Amino acid sequence: MEFKASSASLLKGILDVSKAIPAKTGLPILENFLFVLKGSELEITASDQEITLRTIVSVDKTDEEGSIAVPARQITDLFKTLPDQPVTVKTTSDSSFECIWNNGHSSLPFFPAEDFPSIKGAGEEAVTVKFPAQSLADGITGTIYATSEDEMRPVMNGIFFDINPDRTTLVASDSHKLICYTTTDVEAPQAASFVLHKKAAAVLKGSIDKTDDTVTVTFDSSTVVFTFGATMMVCRLVVGKYPKYNEVIPQNNANILTIDRLALLGTVRRVSVCANKANNHIKFDLKPGKIVITAQDLGFAIAAYEEQACEYNGSELSIGFKSSYLIEILSNMTCETIVMKFADARRAALMVPSEEDAANEKICGILMPIMVS
Q1: Cβ atoms 351, 364 nearer than 8 A
Q2: What Å distances lie between residue 117 and 32, 43, 69, 120, CA to CA?
Q3: 356: which residues sit within 8 A by CB, 6+ positions away?
Q4: CA torsion, points 266, 141, 146, 291, in degrees to nearest 10?
Q5: How far apart, in Å, are the Cα atoms of 204 and each of 99, 127, 188, 212, 224?
Q6: pLDDT tens digit string along 261-313?
Q7: Which of 14, 69, 272, 288 could disulfide-pair with 323, CB 3.0 to 4.6 Å?
Q8: Distance between CA atoms of residues 310 and 260, nearest Å
Q9: What average pLDDT does the segment 136-157 reach?
Q10: Phi, psi for 202 (deg, rounded to 5)
Q11: How many Cβ atoms are within 10 Å of 66's Cβ, its own excluded?
Q12: Contacting residues for 100 by C-beta, under 8 A, at least 6 apart
């Protein structure tokens, strides 16, 4: 096998797939990139058997095609140190290959491509939908923080994709909070759904965040394939039935708080400095025209109080929240004005954008309260 290409394009291709190289593995071959040369295209693949990333790099056309598995760490470190210049890569024996640049070369071992595990995509009955890349990246960013760490309920450790022809919703929940990101710009021929593990979602988001391409998503009951630009990502799906999230979203919370989102976020951040570090509890006292937010840590004799003007329609109410959860939700929303709807101090609060912001804000959520004295 022999080819010539720009060192910068090779480095980009390697870095695009390197997120799938496992930190630790019992299968040493997975510590390598698979290089497959076909004509003027070099296919680079990395996999940890749960996530596979594959991209294509253009090279000078060659008749010496072939495939080898090359050590990921060494070749990545090598190309990171090279300035952009033409590089020749060629096998020199049955077990080694050379990288040749303007004024030097290196010799590295390679391993048989046949040892690299085969990668299976989605089956013949797979469903295909098309996501705008930015919407997919925003949806993952806006929900991934709400996923669970519950090993007993693996479906809660991922993002639920609830796909419909008219709208698609990404959902995440850890039983304390539930976040929904809803968009109408997904091309979907039919209703379908899947659960993508948070690790795969984070890798996907990092891979597509800077591209404006459409992402083609093809999936069956066990595997999903994301295709964007010259890159393809294959992931195992989380198997299981996601809870009916629509049934837990409050519909008739009658106590309604309308307030500037950034003002509320700033107050919560300031007051939470004095909250008990073990539980981060803060308290809302709601009255017509104002909200008082307080926190205290009796063990250290510290407390904080701040009053904010607001629009509040409902009965006087005192309710507690974990401040870190509230900060996460408020930070990931983009609307200017947020509406919080309460039933009482024991039931979940609904957080949605105001009517003026509803057309642009795609995130809403519910947050479970905590008991405070």
Answers
A1: yes
A2: 11, 15, 11, 10
A3: 336, 337
A4: 20
A5: 30, 19, 20, 14, 12
A6: 999 999 999 999 999 998 999 999 999 999 999 999 988 899 999 999 999 99
A7: 272
A8: 8
A9: 94
A10: -65, -40
A11: 15
A12: 87, 88, 89, 90
Q: What's the one-letter identity of residue 186?
A: V
| Token reading at 113 | 């491509």
Nearest-angstrom CA–CA distance, 368 and 345: 10
**Residue closest to 193 by CA, chosen among 257, 259, 243, 154:** 243
Structure tokens, 326? 């509230």
Angle between helix 198-208 and helix 133-143 axes, rounded to 10 deg: 140
- Plot region of 190 (φ>0 → left; ψ -120 to 50 → alpha; else → beta): beta
Tell me the three state secondary structure of residue 65. Answer: coil
Compute the distance between CA of residue 34 and CA of residue 280 in angstroms, rounded to an integer: 47
Cβ contacts of residue 157 below 8 Å, gap of 6+?
147, 148, 149, 150, 151, 197, 198, 238
User: Hey, what amino acid is at 260?
Assistant: D
Closest CA to 42 of 73, 71, 68: 68
Q: Which residues pair with 226 in a beta bridge?
A: 217, 233
DSSP states of 246-312 as a string? GGGS-S---EEEEEEHHHHHHHHHHHHTTS-TTT-EEEEEEETTEEEEEEEETTTTEEEEEEEE-EE
Nearest to 275 by CA among 325, 332, 240, 317: 325
Q: What percent of the chain has pLDDT over 90?
A: 87
- Per residue in 63-77, pLDDT tens? 789 999 999 999 999
